[in-house]
Amino acid sequence: MSKPIEHDYIGLSEQQLPSMEKSSDKKDGLHLKDTELRLGLPGSESPEREDHDQNVLSLKSFVSGAKRGFSDALDGGGNWVFSGGSGGGTEGLFSPRRGGKNNGGKDLSGSDSGSVLKDGAARKPSVVQEKKPQVAATSSHGNGNIAPASKAQVVGWPPIRSFRKNTMASHPPKNDDGDGNAEAKLGSGCLYVKVSMDGAPYLRKVDLKIYGSYKELSSALEKMFSCFTIGQCGSHGVSGGDGLSESRLIDLLHGSEYVLTYEDKDGDWMLVGDVPWEMFTDSCKRLRIMKSTEAIGLVTRKCLLPNK
Amino acid sequence: MQKKTAYSFPDEILEHVFSFIQSVKDRNAASLVCKSWYEIERWCRRKIFVGNCYAVSPTMVIRRFPDIRSIELKGKPHFADFNLVPDGWGGYVLPWISKMAGAYPWLEEIRLKRMVVTDESLELVAKSFTNLQVLVLFSCEGFSTDGLAAIAAGCKNLRELDLRDSEVDDLSGHWLNHFPDTYTSLVSLNISCLGSDDVSFSALERLVGRCPNLRRLLLNREVPLDKIANLLSRAPQLIEFGTGTYAAELRSDVYSNLAEAFCNCKELKSLSGFWDAVPAYLPVIYSVCSRLTSLNLSYAPIQNPDLTKLVSQCPSLQRMLVLDYIEDSGLEVLASSCKDLQELRVFPSDPFGEEPNVSLTEKGLVAVSSGCPKLQSVLYFCRQMSNAALVTIAQNCPNFTRFRLCLLDPKIADYRTLQSLDVGFGAIVEHCKDLRRLSLSGLLTDCVFEYIGMHAKKLEMLSVAFAGESDLALHHVLSGCESLRKLEIMNCPFGDKALLANAAKLETMRSLWMSSCSVSLGACKMLGQKMPRLNIEVMDEKGPPDSRAESDPVDKLYIYRSVAGPRFDMPPFVWTMDEDFASELS
């Protein structure tokens, strides 16, 4: 395997192709400090980025913690290095054979990953969603890695279309045991349902399988639709964390303005929350955040029970 | 003036010559020869392909090409298929339909992919294009059966209606009744995506019965097995057929009717559907198997030995889509039986399971690569891979044009050596000189990207996830892949440097998608300022970028070239980094 050729980046104008210089003073890996980047148009000044390297360094480590939400079963997988800016330098963060730039399940099991992020902007890694732990995650290749208890599912991986996912969700995969495992396996997969909100210009979709309770679903929906109700809240945009706007939104949802309803398999519109969670996910076809004024006359499951 | 008459062709002759030039590239080249060729060409161009509906505006298209008969538009980025693009992002077709309604009354063909199509748009289509013959809605959404009813009622010359993989709001199955009784011109109908109440079977039967030219019929899952025989007997001329649900209690009358119906379809070459398939009814298609060139069993939970037995009866197969129930053993049989195989797709039956539920490994793919010399296109989901296997595959199949490998654990190493898979994928790009599309997975360092930049000169589309270590990787790709048009990246440690150093490259590409990477807001703003012919769109559902620091990474980034400028239909969670944005915030 040939070693990668080191390059210096040279600023680029719209007409020019990048010209690369080979530098032979580095042996392995790319040292961030040694590459200098400018984007220059003829006659213009490129912005000085003195502290570029530090920014990039801390940026990368910040991000690596947030983004690497996918636990991997690899050799030496215990390299959970992702502190905010120090720690091991670039080699430790980006060494070729280790994949451990991630929270794995350690930080994600049960708690919000916000604790990992030390920088100012508290960002929940939006790509990482926690899967209901059905089976203890073990590496199928048995490299003796300590895999986390709950394996986080990442949005977009594996790359399978929703149509296929939803189709497959309704027949169980092959299993030799018959009963025991079938339940567990049926639980994995996705169940995307549409969520509409009265007054919002377009629909959203949620995967019901990633939530374990009404509370989780409710808070996810609040976050998702907060941008539509902010007008009513009177604040601009959603602040990064649990701010005033969110609690106002909760008031809106749980207060008098909106109710959460769903359409069940029979086509009836019901209020969310009456039946056990599993029963709800089994029968829910779509969700609607409805104005309370319109929800008068909606049935609850309790009313229907005698007939069923 | 004399010079002109001495050296120029009459326009009509040039136009006639141009009519033989079908390829868009050649047409574009011809239009650049001189002004008069540009003029003549634009008046006689009939077919338009717009790979990104925001790259150009409908007004611009209409201004240049006044007489278009066939249009193809694509909307959302490819990763929208995997739920990475939130709803409401865009890709609305209505503005196009509205403008074209007045400009192209003779429009015959509309093909849309990943666009938002409303009932209003469909109604407008039905009203404005009386000569519409082809309507293809591939992975579209936003419409209901009401819109379909409008099409059925209004498009009297419709030949092809294809709703492939679209999301349709089911309101009523009676939209099929809106095809008038006098309507007989249907040639191709794909309703495989429709839900439970969307299709009135009796209307379908009558429609099929009165359309003697029907060649392609793909049903939806809700059509029961015992109705198929009747349907097929009304359309024995079918070339391509997709069943509905393929499960039922075994009944001899149903079985024999079905077997006979299939037997009578002498031209049947392609089968699909097979939802919920049970082995009992598989043999009814045996009479067709020897002729089959395309078989899609990717929704069928059939397992070995029934699955392998079926495959072994199809020696003419060119295209095979199947679940991983086929296992390595089945693929070995495929390799020995189907020497004409060109395309193979193996999907995972249990993608989220922790343990493998089937014995499908790299060995199956190696076997097919070895046994099928014409293999060109592969999509393969599995759980383990080795460099050795990939090298073998590359050497066996230098003719690959599309190679997509999806390891379910996206950063898994070579299971034999525990090394990265750089060498394996390197072999693929080195041996397969005609490779146009590549999807990577597994443990990958910057090395593999160096190989790609060095060898993949014809590569047009590259999909990357959880790979690479530094910006060098991205730089290799952007600087080395001369034919690159689409690059989509998720969860890789790529930041500003490579992007900014290769900014000009982005204008030669259709689009770049980067999500969960390390590109800073500052870099996006800079690109927005410096590259006016690129639309730099930052997507973040947590709030506007101005609430965060310049060095903060953006959540999702979508960059595409455009002559139409920034778009105006963005939802609240998308910001465009144009000059105004950058300057007002700095």
TrEMBL record, chain A:
Basic and acidic residues bias: start-end ranges: 22-37
Classification via Pfam families: AUX_IAA (PF02309)
Annotated spans, Disordered: 1-56, 91-151
Domain PB1: 190-292
InterPro entries: AUX/IAA_dom, AUX_IAA, PB1-like
Low complexity compositional bias, start-end: 105-119
Example GO BP: auxin-activated signaling pathway
GO annotation, cellular component aspect: nucleus
Keywords tagged on the record: Auxin signaling pathway, Nucleus, Repressor, Transcription, Transcription regulation
Cell location: Nucleus
Keyword Glycoprotein: no
Subunit structure: Homodimers and heterodimers.
Family stated for the protein in its record: Belongs to the Aux/IAA family.
Role according to the record: Aux/IAA proteins are short-lived transcriptional factors that function as repressors of early auxin response genes at low auxin concentrations.
Protein name as catalogued: Auxin-responsive protein
UniProtKB/TrEMBL annotation, chain B:
Source superkingdom: Eukaryota
Domain F-box: start-end pairs: 9-50
Protein name per its UniProtKB record: F-box domain-containing protein
Keywords annotated in UniProt: Auxin signaling pathway, Developmental protein, Nucleus, Ubl conjugation pathway
Organism encoding this protein: Gossypium barbadense (Sea Island cotton)
UniProt entry tagged with the keyword Nucleus: yes
Subcellular location: Nucleus
Main localization of the protein described in the UniProt heading: nucleus
Signal peptide: none
One GO term describing the cellular component: nucleus
InterPro entries reported in the protein's UniProt record: COI1_F-box, F-box_dom, FBXL15_LRR, Leu-rich_rpt_Cys-con_subtyp, LRR_dom_sf, Transp_inhibit
UniProt xrefs under Pfam families: DUF7885, F-box_5, Transp_inhibit
Pathway(s) where this gene product acts: Protein modification; protein ubiquitination
GO BP annotation list: auxin-activated signaling pathway; pollen maturation; SCF-dependent proteasomal ubiquitin-dependent protein catabolic process
SMART domains per the UniProt record, alphabetical: FBOX, LRR_CC
One Gene Ontology MF term: auxin binding
